[in-house]
Amino acid sequence: MKVGFLVNPIAGMGGGVALKGTDGAETLRRARELGAVPRAFERAALALEAASPLSPDVTFLACGGGMGAELLRKWGLPFEVVYTPPFPDTSSEDTRRAVWAMRGAGAALLLFAGGDGTARDVCAALEGGAAGERTSLPVIGVPAGVKIHSAVYGITPRRSGQLLRKFMAGQVRDYTQAEVMDIDEEAFREGRVDARLYGYLTVPRDRSCLQDRKSGGMPVDSYDRTAIGAWVAKEMRPGRLYLVGSGSTTQAVMDALRLSGTLLGVDAVKDRRLMGSDLTERQLLELVEPGNTTLIVTATGGQGHLLGRGNQQLSPAVLRAVGPGNIMVIATPEKLNGLFLRPLRVDTGDAELDRALCGYAAVVTGWSRRQMHRVAC
Amino acid sequence: MDKIAGKRDTSLSRFHQASWNEPIIYELSVPGERGVLVPQVSEKAAAEVGDGVSSLPACMRREKAPDLPEIGQPQLARHYNHLAQENLGVDSNIDIGQGTCTMKYSPKVNDRLASCPKVAGMHPLQPEATAQGILEVIHRLGGLFREISGLDCSSIQPGGGAHGILAMASIVRAYWEAKGEERDTIITTFFSHPADAAAPIVKGYKAIVLPPDEEGLPDIEAFKAALNEHTAAIFMTNPEDTGIFNRRIREFTRLAREAGALCCYDQANANGLLGITRTAEAGFDLSFFNLHKTFSSPHGCGGPAVGIVTCRRELRDYMPVPLVEHSPERGYYLDFNLPHTCGKVKSFWGVAPVAVRAYAWIMSLGAEGLREVSRVAILNNNYCMKKILAIKGASISFPEHKPRIEQARYSWQKLKEDTGFGTADVTRRIPDYGTHYWSSHEPWVIPEPFTIEPSESYSKADIDTYCDILASIARECYEEPEVIRGAPHNSTVHHISHDFFDDPERWVLSWRNYRQKYTGYFQPRKK
Predict the structure, then answer these.
(1) Domains, chain B
(2) Cis peptide before A86, with omega less than 30 degrees from 0?
(3) Are A214 and B443 in contact (CB < 8 Å)?
């Protein structure tokens, strides 16, 4: 079995020196000036320790030098180098190239140590540049960065290692799509949180090891998504236009309709037929039938934004044309309850519209089931 | 004796779970083996009754002998003792960790009454004229619940708590169908029992769940936003599983009534309310109580159980049939003549032994005794809460809302932040102390939750011991992490993989099914 092993050597360096991230060469330079030291190795080592003893048939696919090979050599673990960064200071491009090389060399799983920036790069590499395309190569993130908003990381480095051990022992039987989130570091440094959903990575389904698993019992996010999709599809009225927003929950509606939608875009459906895909604001304005259109949106994980994060094509003009009363919010119980006591948020850029959208939403959370949730701006 | 006792530390139990590779009783069966040798029939008796079988009507005669295990008495005794040793129940541990289940001591004398031949020998199809005794018990029990709830009619047909909710949903459905109004939605609350949403959905309703507000009470503004002319009913548990009593409950029922909706009260958590507050005064039209849990039948064993349903007089016509009634002319009888009945929610007319135990328990206590039960349950809970909140790493949900009624939902969030160990880890360690505890219903919005309910049966010493166990485990999390990592050390089951629940391929619904898929302890069979 081949397991990809990737360490982003600079991940986490910005945290200790209050830079809120390490994305970009300039930030890295400033971090070093301020005395930041690498910490990703240490955390990746904790994961390897927890994964031990490794089964004899496992070989790691590694990157040369500081991106993983050194650590594996130190631990005496079998590996082959599939990519070597050309310069000592590695970049996001190196992460992407390394992931491509590992996938090409037949990795069954990728273990990577980094932060949200690293997860974004891994996500971009595995999506092959095509927006919305989902990969089947599972990954396990070792939390080593400053920002860990994405749901692909272990609760601790050790838990990531334990999950790798389970994978190698054949004990992982189910997988799920986990959100890759990141915030704009520059905006964050200025005190603004601007979070975005960048895509999804496939991760082993394991409540005990991965973060963002809030419950320990039966309900499973993917089952809930399927139930929501089936319910919304069943409730669709003939002759009415439905705009299906971005996200894996809304994607479940398209799946129930057996239509291929875009994961990160807005699609239009009428009478169970696809009327448009990945629509722009202008296209949406042309399509919307005032009074006869329902917009289906879901919340982003973490901050709980319904509008204004990753779906800017749903502009104030589009939303006014649809009408605030014609917006259907759907979310899995897991995601909604992750916001427990915190409101859903709207940030359309139009203060008056935001106020009109505030109040309570009856969020569809399952088959025949809704949950009231406060909406604030 | 004193010398020995003085040396022994008995503050915390040391325990090791028994483990037997015990086959099922059919696998112990040996053809021809007998536990009781029945004497041969005397010649005189044989002359009188023949072979004892052929005089029976043909329709009552078996065509072949029943397939029963053939086994001797010592082997039988050993078998059941082995199974009993593997069990951990209310008679073998301080069972206050099974919060929301109202684990309490059910007096054995009530068991003897319920299992006496006059009850155990009854058949549900007996003509009512021959069942006057048990019908009288059920009728009188209904009278007691009319006092306890303040409502007018009752049925013991539902066979459990969720079933009681289903019965209420069935009545609601029958009511609106008879009225000819199309109301398709019910409203419930986040910390109500999950069946308060699920059972009405089974009856075809759409469910809306209200979130809690900052205080942990159902958000009344969300309620106002959800309530409209489509609302058929509200289904509310009170107190909820947080142990918080909704002091605004009458405001909810008032608003619901103004919208024309029926009000259904889930009183499964009534152990702290007896004689203190009633369904009727809270403004509800229907309610159910668990005769198991509070009223002297043990909970947590999958039955037998009864979710007694009570309702206002105006809703009697919609109740399940038959109701047990009484008239001077007919004595006790089964009344099937309900014009708009929701039909049957279960075969026959209720679980008789559970009704007998409940009746005996209530009568042995009287009205003042019931009130005392609730007062002690509340006192125990609030004492226990004070002890638990003194444990490093423990906290309570909605801390500003104290005291609690009969249970409380706590959190190990601080413990988790400090040590990496949370409620799942405590769950693994606690069997080593000879007891167990329960976390929470889904979803786990209270981080690292656990729910403790020390009902009136437990002494101060019992509560102290249980809290000492929790404190000891918390200390181990901080000081001896390896002990927690490897736990349980003295149990037969180690980590439980919840992933099994998600995979139908790995489910087993019977022993035979288990043998087909697994060998040993869940070791998959090679195909």
Answers:
(1) 117-364 (3.40.640.10), 368-499 (3.90.1150.10)
(2) no
(3) yes
